[in-house]
Design goal:
98 residues, mainly alpha, 5 helices, 6% strand, globular, FAD-linked_oxidoreductase-like, NAD, oxidoreductase
């Protein structure tokens, strides 16, 4: 229960659309948000491609929701490089290089 309450402070939605909608009222009061996709780490090329598509969709949604506020006043996104390429240790496993 305590972890859930703490998590709600930082996790505003399960999808980017839900998170943007939930943040709207606080943004009107001057709060700023930087969105993050939780739990991503690409282990395969297919994972990396799926995360790339998800990031592209999120960036588009955030840009649309910013309503021309610009990069300092509008919402942002945190992009993890580990989501865009399979991890080196996993990619090298069994290849004789690692």
């Amino acid at each position: 229960m305590a972890m859930r309450l703490m998590g709600e402070q930082f996790v505003t939605g399960e999808t980017i659309a839900e998170a943007l909608a939930n943040a709207r009222k606080l943004e009107e009061k001057g709060f700023r948000y930087s969105y993050d996709m939780l739990g991503e780490a690409a282990l395969t090329a297919a994972d990396a491609q799926a995360y790339m598509v998800s990031y592209q969709q999120a960036i588009h949604a955030i840009g649309k929701a910013s309503n021309g506020r610009g990069i300092y006043e509008g919402p942002g996104i945190s992009i993890k490089l580990s989501a865009l390429h399979p991890r080196y240790s996993r990619a090298q496993y069994g290849s004789g290089d690692g």
